[in-house]
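Exercise 7.
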Amino acid sequence: MRLLWWTPAVLALSLFSILLSESRTIDPFQNLTLTVSAPVQTGIGDLADPAANFLEGVFKRGDVVRENERLRAEVERLQAELAGSEEARRRLQDLEDALDIRESRPDDELLLADVIAQDPSGVKRVLAINRGSSDGLDEGMVVLSKSGSLVGTVSQVLDDFSWLRLVSDPNSAVNVAVLPTSDAEGEARGVAVGDLRSSLSLDLLPADAPVAEGDFVTTSGLGGNYPPALLVGSVQSVEEQPQALTKRARIEPAAELSSLETVLIITNFLPARLSGP
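Solution. The predicted structure, written as tokens, is:
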């Protein structure tokens, strides 16, 4: 019964409110309500704006961060592609240089190797390469630069890696011949010794040897540890020693020993490994 009375009462109250609103009778009450509630609503809006701006900034910042990450990834990808292209170009050039050396030395069997490390102590001049006994390497084999000049010898061999002793190492000594570029006849013989500097010491030269700056220095083949006629470098300076039986000179190596990336090993020449008397 209450429900039957409640429904007509609600309908009647609604009609009465509509009539009052249409007749503008309750306008003062609506105005008072808006006057009181407007500042509250404005304050709530003012409080909500920073939060809304913050949330919007967070979303936008997230978009910026994601875009930056995408751009960084793209840059890294392009850099990797460029690096790969440069590595491929360098490798191709190394192979072409090795082919040129092979054609100029048809009797030699040459194995190309990459330099992977160097001795950090500063008291030796040795390099590690990515070739070893599994590739047919043996101690004492002669090592050339990719342009065909003397670099050194294989000093220690592991299964897949080896150590090279450069001609600039203090334990390196090479019998050499000095080919005069002037009108002087004949050639002088001496020993090129490493001393950790960028140049080599040319010792045991006869005092009257016709040696001058710019003369080419090659292996002489004496001793059997190196094949003859390998380019070592050129005479940088000559040190005269009055009243001495010998004189000394400095050799500028032909190979860039400090920046080697690839080398060639002569695998069909085995050193004599002569022992002392």
